[in-house]
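Something for you to look into today, if you have time. What I am after is a single protein written out in full by you. I want to see for myself how the chain folds. Could you add the entry underneath, on a fresh line?
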Amino acid sequence: MPLYEYRCTACQRAFETLVSRWDAPSPPCPECGGASARQLSVFSVASAGQRDSKTGTSGAPGPCGSGSCACRMSPN
């Protein structure tokens, strides 16, 4: 089930909830019970070998024989 973001039209509280289908009615606000509106969301996908854009390094060890493989990495 997808996770959707909503904002209460009464108290302006933002909240997330799992919804079984995309056309399901908006759930009531968990804080005040008021009506809510679905918000536009952005999602992110990352893989184990993806490089960090700030440091230029990979978050995961490299392949064996690369010098940065897990079997050759020394503990800090």
Remarks:
- Residues 1 and 74 are 41 Å apart (CA to CA).
- The radius of gyration is 21 Å.
